[in-house]
Design a protein that fits this description.
The complex is a heterodimer of chains A (296) and B (368). Chain A is mainly α and 296 residues long. Chain A has twelve helices and no strands. Chains A and B meet through helix 8 and helix 9 of A and strand 6 and helix 3 of B.
Chain lengths: 296, 368
């Protein structure tokens, strides 16, 4: 039987998937790498030239791109931990045996189902400037009038946090569902054993829940990190990268470069840089994960 | 070391079903009490109530005479061995044993001392750095026992701790548990559905059925004087044969199994005067499989239905050939020494020692 697995029949059967992967993943990626080494510009009368690493030198000296890189890092460093902790807390709350718990689960998962572009539009309305904007009104209410209305999306300090908030609201539900599944896989007997062994609520969480969720959490953090690096929709709809590059991201810069400025070469270089960053992070997390798995 | 008392304990679930009804039991200090019964009889529930994993609905639970209904499991100082061991998979054996000690906030040196002591006692010293998944079933079982013993608990609870082991290992660990318990003298409540475990381990046995205590006493006592047909059939393997009986005033005989056997009433009445009230009433009679033998009176013709040979003895399933129509005949089983000599379909003569005859009312309560 094992020999048959490597025969021509196996190859034939996996061909549809392989062809798809080659056509839509590997080929575009190789093209991006190739294009990033040229000066390809759409609609330019100049001939196509091989410029080597010139595009990379150029984007790494471009203040907008560096801004994008920093913004992306800030976004990841804030959103990933906050979202994971929130999702964990929500999953623990929803992992109770209550009557209408299924409805609560649906409710918390709902934001994930909405298209991001729609969510972004709604949040643009929430962040509307002036005292009548819902977010301004809310902050004014809970600060007993101490809050002076701001224009969130056109404020250099508040624009990125506003986008972070939108993203967290939208993304937490997905993580929550994954963590909830992880929680439900933990045997109730372990909690009972820990209770009898004298562990309180917090100790049970620390010594049973967290270690048992380790692999789930590593997966969730990895996926969220990758998604966070791909941040684009919210920026495109809510701020267009502004004000003064305060909310620009790698993806946004790449799209701007390739499609607004028609500089395909430099856009391709940016995506390759992003790929490398994500690859590096994934490898790092995989390493941590596999070390943990070896000992556990 | 402690005594444990269940006083009129009920456990009701929100859907109205009752797991335990009016349960009364006193477990003496240092005693090994075995709760036994078929699955769903409430024996595990009784254990969980004592551990504090489930709340008591009515009645009182006492440890050392002090009500513990309201105290949290952490405060009861009870240890428990679970059926599936419930070892912490992400911790080494050492950390598993250490966990309850850390929760007690014992100093490091004392923790190490106790771990070494317990591991030595259970013969798991070489396994301390391993993880549960690297252990065999028997080793896991020992670690689970170790985790419970290491804290020197007041009461030791065991919920079917041997049911995941193979037969040989089960027998060996069973005797280890018995000697360990005697040596440490810790009050132990042991839950099992296996009557052999109950008979061999228990100082006393409490038999449960459908949430109600049927009988509690020393193993031999329960075996010799079962309070009802349930206890009679549950203990012993195979259990006691129960079949219909009728006492006839005119002939002054007791007719058993449709008249297959008839024995004089007189000696029985002398032994159990209360039987006089049941003359001319339908009764149930009980005989252990080992009460039968080919020789003593009364002898009856029986038809052999099947024989299971165990080498040194045989279990003979038969129907007494009395006056009853074939459809109503009851199949009984006899345990006879020696290799098989009977053939299926053959009819032989079989008698029993009437000193070993049990009599029950028609609803199953013992008479006398």
């Amino acid at each position: 039987m094992p020999e048959e697995g490597r025969g021509p029949a196996a190859f034939l059967l996996s061909a549809p998937a392989l062809v798809g992967l080659l056509l839509f993943v590997l080929l575009p990626f190789l093209l991006a790498v190739a294009l990033s080494l040229t000066n390809l510009r759409l609609g330019s009368p100049l001939p196509l030239e091989w410029v080597g690493l010139e595009q990379y030198r150029r984007i790494l000296n471009d203040p907008s791109f560096l801004h994008a890189l920093i913004n992306n890092l800030l976004f990841v460093l804030t959103v990933v931990p906050v979202q994971t902790v929130l999702a964990l807390a929500m999953a623990m709350l929803l992992n109770q045996r209550l009557g209408a718990i299924a409805w609560f689960r649906v409710l918390f998962f709902m934001p994930v189902v909405f298209p991001l572009s729609l969510v972004a539009v709604v949040w643009v309305l929430i962040f509307a400037p002036g005292p009548d904007g819902p977010m301004n009104a809310l902050l004014e209410l809970i600060s007993f009038g101490a809050w002076t209305p701001r224009d969130f999306l056109h404020d250099e300090q508040l624009a990125l946090p506003a986008i972070m908030l939108t993203s967290i609201w939208q993304g937490t539900g997905f993580q929550m569902v994954v963590i909830l599944a992880g929680l439900q896989a933990i045997s109730a007997e372990l909690y009972e054993a820990a209770t009898i062994d004298g562990a309180g609520c917090w100790q049970r969480f620390w010594f049973v829940t967290l270690p048992q969720l380790r692999n789930t959490l590593i997966f969730v953090v990895l996926v969220t990190t990758i998604l966070a690096f791909r941040l684009f929709d919210q920026v495109q709809i809510m701020t267009q990268g502004g004000p003064h590059d305060a909310t620009t991201t790698i993806m946004f810069e790449a799209v701007q470069s390739a499609f607004a400025r028609q500089q395909i070469g430099s856009g391709a270089a940016m995506t390759v840089v992003m790929f490398l960053v994500v690859l590096l992070l994934s490898l790092l997390q995989r390493r941590i994960a596999s070390q943990e798995r070896e000992v556990s | 070391m402690a005594t444990v008392e269940y006083v009129h304990v009920d456990k009701e679930y929100p859907n109205g079903s009752r797991a335990i009804e009016d349960f009364n039991l006193l477990v003496e200090d240092g005693e090994m009490m075995v709760l036994v019964g078929p699955s769903g009889c409430g024996k595990s529930t009784a254990l969980r109530l004592l551990a504090g994993l489930d709340p008591v609905s009515h009645g009182e639970l006492r440890i050392d005479g002090i009500r513990v209904n309201e105290s949290s499991p952490q405060l009861r100082n009870i240890a428990m061995v679970f059926q599936n061991y419930a070892l912490y998979p992400h911790m080494t054996v050492r950390r598993n044993l250490e966990f309850p000690l850390r929760m007690m906030k014992l100093p490091k040196a004392e923790r190490v001392r106790r771990i070494e002591e317990t591991a030595g006692m259970l013969g798991i010293s070489e396994l301390l750095e391993r993880r549960p998944r690297q252990l065999s079933g028997g080793q896991r079982q020992r670690v689970a026992m170790g985790r419970a013993l290491v804290r020197h608990p007041r009461v030791f609870l065991m919920d079917e701790p041997l049911s995941n082991l193979d037969m040989k290992l089960r027998t060996r660990i069973r005797s280890e548990i018995a000697s360990l318990q005697k040596r440490l003298g810790v009050t132990t409540i042991y839950v099992t559905h296996d009557q052999v475990e109950a008979m061999t381990l228990g100082d006393r046995i409490a038999v449960l059925k459908e949430g109600k205590l049927q009988q509690c006493g020393r193993p031999q006592e329960l075996y010799d004087q079962p309070a009802n047909t349930f206890v009679a059939t549950f203990l012993g393997n195979p259990g006691m044969n129960i079949f219909r009986a009728w006492s006839d005033k005119v002939t002054a005989t007791l007719k058993l199994a449709g008249g297959g056997w008839q024995i004089p009433l007189e000696p029985l009445l002398r032994r159990k005067p209360i039987l006089a009230q049941y003359v001319e009433h339908p009764l149930l009679a009980g005989l252990r499989p080992e009460a039968f033998s080919p020789r003593p009176t009364p002898v009856a013709k029986v038809l052999i239905e099947s024989v299971e040979s165990l080498g040194h003895e045989r279990l003979v399933h038969f129907v007494p050939l009395g006056e009853t129509p074939a459809a109503e005949r009851e199949t009984l089983v006899a345990r006879l020494p020696g290799p098989q000599v009977e053939k299926v379909g053959q009819s032989i003569e079989l008698g029993f020692d009437s000193g070993q005859l049990h009599l029950f009312t028609i609803d199953g309560k013992t008479i006398g």
